């Protein structure tokens, strides 16, 4: 599919030959991401130890609340980075297990903020830790261990990059069933790590409840996240022999991309046009050639895009061909709300987080396919970063231990 | 609660307002009634405080975590400590319990002999018979911290007042230089003298409110509802900074400098004999840098000079001085703590080093985000270490 063949971009009349623009890294998120978990309860707990970190495939449905907190490393050497990762590991182990905090005694302030009450519930908490390319610069002596393809977030032609929301060395992706549990975890971890990391940007997200059923809706009103690769498909975790450093095996590349959704503009567009931009029906979530949310689009039967246009978001993002199969990625989308902008519009959108074994062959390949799609006019990607999600921890180890062995 | 905040900020004992009475705090403590109980643990015990006995109900038990429900069955507001024998180090201090009030306190008990102490009006009134704890704990047991006394902290206060008096003495020639520079209309020179004096004042550890009105007049506190030029109560270093960076006339600023000089001389005259609140110095040890982070590194208290890093540097000096003055009481409770704290303060100086050459400083606005983060990281990390000082040296409630 070449960009020139995209037929229906609404603004093409005004923009002339703009169809060659690569677009909307954002867009991949908008029509997808796994259905979220609900009513998991305060006692829901996901084990910290494992071959892989939680917060990617575990739990299968994203928790209702999240924050993506990104930090700059203020540690100045390898020992500082190691101390950071050890301290983060200690805290995440304690926080995800839940329980009554060990009392600090009379010689220190309280050990815990008390935000979750005297006995903190695990509340479905997961904390997923990633490192940006800055952790592999000259400060820490780890340049030779830098994963291939880990650089700054690629800026695509239709993005509206805002430096205040770009970059960062350390990602804490904190997800839980309630926002107070997310806040509590972030506050606890930063308390124990102040010397080594300082906040760079942070955005909170939520997953809506099913309306009325099935996959939750994004802020365009569409069910978002219907199709994701399963874990046995082998597209997410870094494996031996993939050309990545050995320490990274069991990890995954995390792309965080902040996508504003211009909802006022969107609301002034007919639902039929919305449906053809997405490729699904707004009411049911069904693909335009089906009748149920879970129906699989039959693109082979519609080679000219009569029913599902060739430039529909779901068709560009996942053409369901043998060639595109390996470009699929795991998505966990979170809606965000940041108030208003100077024009009087709401500043809302999607925290698009995706997970893959190869950033270039998966995330970037999908974005290149989406270049110039009709939905581009209604979204603006403005921030984010690429991270290497660290391998999981087994036994008494710590996150990123393989960097120091 | 407002009263408690005021108490904490005040150094000078100036009468009823700064002397916490047990009764006043007891009223606040009744708010604890609505606190939900802690989740039941393996080991719990109800401990009664009565007019006849302190802490009946705590029998011999196994080592490990325990939740005590403290219940005041007496007629009097009572503070309850769990102490370890011998030495009577404190594992926890309750708030003051009003009559009829219960609350939960937790500790991890290592093997040994323990008692409850009951205090009223800051004085130990009774102590329970010891109870034995046997066995081992898997995690760290709660440390027993020797209770601080007013007399012990008075020695530290005396050390501090000597330091403060010497420091304030160095302000006089700086203010004379400032006045002379303003008299000759040399604003560039005046700004240098102002910075010297501002740093000296910060080096005193004069977190706002520390010296009451005398301190406020020297520091200069803005009325946020008024423009600085129309705020007659806005004086001292802050007002002069504002004028130096907002094109006020040198003559008008000279008058402010003369008044500042008088205010400093007046405080210097009183300083050695100021009756400090005994427990204030441990609070000051962490509040100086709390103010640095909140007011200075945020840019909130800047009046135009942008000298946040220069002031931070002086605040570090002041913090070092207070920690040094408290070193004896601190080290006897947690050996090595002053070295640990000084390491964190050294890190602040390391972060500040690229931001100045001698006393010529980059402004807060000109610093890169990375430079600001380095300073913020070091200051906030130091604060985590300093936060233990007031806890280690807390006086019994009502004894201040």
Automatic annotation (TrEMBL), chain A:
Gene Ontology MF term list: heme binding; metal ion binding; peroxidase activity
Domain Dyp-type peroxidase N-terminal: from-to ranges: 53-206
Region annotation (Disordered) ranges: 98-119
InterPro entries per UniProt: Dimeric_a/b-barrel (IPR011008), Dyp_perox_C (IPR048328), Dyp_perox_N (IPR048327), Dyp_peroxidase (IPR006314), TAT_signal (IPR006311)
One GO CC term, this protein: cytosol
Signal peptide (residue range): 1-39
Organism superkingdom: Bacteria
One Pfam family per UniProt: Dyp_perox_C
Keywords: Heme, Iron, Metal-binding, Oxidoreductase, Peroxidase, Signal
Positions of the Dyp-type peroxidase C-terminal domain: 215-393
Keyword Heme: yes
Protein family membership: Belongs to the DyP-type peroxidase family.
Entries under NCBIfam families matching the protein: Dyp_perox_fam (TIGR01413)
UniProt name for this protein: Deferrochelatase/peroxidase EfeB
The species this protein was found in: Arthrobacter livingstonensis
Lineage: Bacteria, Bacillati, Actinomycetota, Actinomycetes, Micrococcales
TrEMBL record, chain B:
Cellular component per GO, a single term: cell envelope
Family annotation (InterPro entries): EfeM/EfeO_iron_uptake, Imelysin-like, Imelysin-like_EfeO/Algp7, Imelysin_sf
Domain of life: Bacteria
Cellular compartment(s): Cell envelope
Keywords from the named record: Membrane, Signal, Transmembrane, Transmembrane helix
TM helices/strands, residue ranges: 12-32
Cited Gene3D superfamilies: M75 peptidase, HXXE motif
Domain Imelysin-like: 171-379
Main location: other
Stated family: Belongs to the EfeM/EfeO family.
Protein name: Imelysin-like domain-containing protein
Lineage, opening ranks: Bacteria, Bacillati, Actinomycetota, Actinomycetes, Micrococcales
